[in-house]
């Protein structure tokens, strides 16, 4: 029952990214560092050991119960969903290969406790990506076994890559933008949907450019400035901010180009679409000119 409560509390709290990961913080001021760790295992390595530190910023001692849970993407937004005990069908499970030497730790006020964690490279650990979190459930001496309230928890995420059989297959599945033959305005946001059909986590990188009929780059965006991952067997939607680089021509045949690769440079993706751009002022001038021409012609004919 307790673990179910923890899972429901944690499943929507994390968005996975590679850079700028800050320590996860619970309500009482408990932090864990690192909040995010990547591990590479070679085929012939027996194990990998690393450490997590739990910092108590409270004025009272706390007890942190430790356990592990597998995780995956919850949806295309990149939210992380922790998975319960029944993970036999989860291809990228990592929990059964993790060894934590203690079930709980006591952290004094203002102190930090370090916990070593070991990942065993057993023969049944398949090549590719495997994902789990070290969960710290915060309690105190005042808590009792009958107290079933949802207590705050913090987690540090582990992304493991076992070398020797990775399958790299990241593709651009969808470009969501105003796809029309004629455009009157430039959009400042473009949405891209990536799909990872391989067995290893990857980071999409690249650029989105709009070029005019002269070949000039007039708008440009950078894909995935936050370095978000796409986990295996998952889709992820990223929003790209387009920045103006040059003044656009009043009338032009523009080309939108999306191109890039994953962070390991194992896969490439590209997309291209062309359209006619007409500035609204041109439409206004044409309407005014047509009106004046019509008025002049009508006046000319009325004098005959």
UniProtKB/TrEMBL annotation:
The keyword Signal applies. Keywords: Membrane, Signal, Transmembrane, Transmembrane helix. The chain crosses the membrane at residues 275-296. Residues 1-23 form the signal peptide. This is DUF3324 domain-containing protein. It comes from Candidatus Roizmanbacteria bacterium RIFCSPHIGHO2_02_FULL_37_24. The lineage of its organism: Bacteria, Candidatus Roizmaniibacteriota.
